[in-house]
């Protein structure tokens, strides 16, 4: 079986070195997008682990986590032993849709992610500048605690959404609450379409703590910066697996 690297000269163009604090999510995004775009055709094998890790400038451990995520999402299958490797599969939830439906879906997801990237970091900064009420402080702490102690993927995602809504609520803006509710509702539906990745959740928990601590300390710059990374991490996963 041929590898995708042998079949497409575009591999070098689409797989770029990963930088920053979201290596896992960036690997999933780049590999998932390459599969969706046909750079890695169905039925071919991905380049070997060493080559991919070097091309993406990540550790083999991080690459394995990303491949595992793609496998859980149905993008690839892996055969162990001599002659084995990672084979690109037909992704049913993508290929069952007509081309125009897929493009409409991608546009909707991209639009939501852009809106979120604009709204949520700003909400963090504004919340940190606000003289928070006891109710807002309690809501933030409770939402953070519930996210960290969630005992199932469904419970975690609901608690995650409540935490983001609590941040918006702390800004005391009815219009912001409306927009944030719309964003979180859409985001929740998208996340329910992809598997639950522990590596991403560990990153999210750490980011959530930094964001809430920044808001409560009045450090808007830190809260906004961490939320920017947090939003970008989620966007990378959704872009790679859905859009």
Automatic annotation (TrEMBL):
Please give the InterPro entries that the UniProt record associates with this protein.
GntR_C, TF_FadR/GntR_C, Tscrpt_reg_HTH_GntR, WH-like_DNA-bd_sf, WH_DNA-bd_sf
Q: Which residues form the HTH gntR-type domain?
A: 21-91
Q: Name one Pfam family in it.
A: GntR
An example of a GO molecular function for this protein is: DNA binding
Question: CDD domains per the record?
Answer: WHTH_GntR (cd07377)
Superkingdom to which the source organism belongs: Bacteria
Keywords carried by this UniProt record: DNA-binding, Pyruvate, Transcription, Transcription regulation
The record's PROSITE patterns line, in alphabetical order, gives:
HTH_GNTR
Protein name as catalogued: GntR family transcriptional repressor for pyruvate dehydrogenase complex
Source organism of this protein record? Lysinibacter cavernae
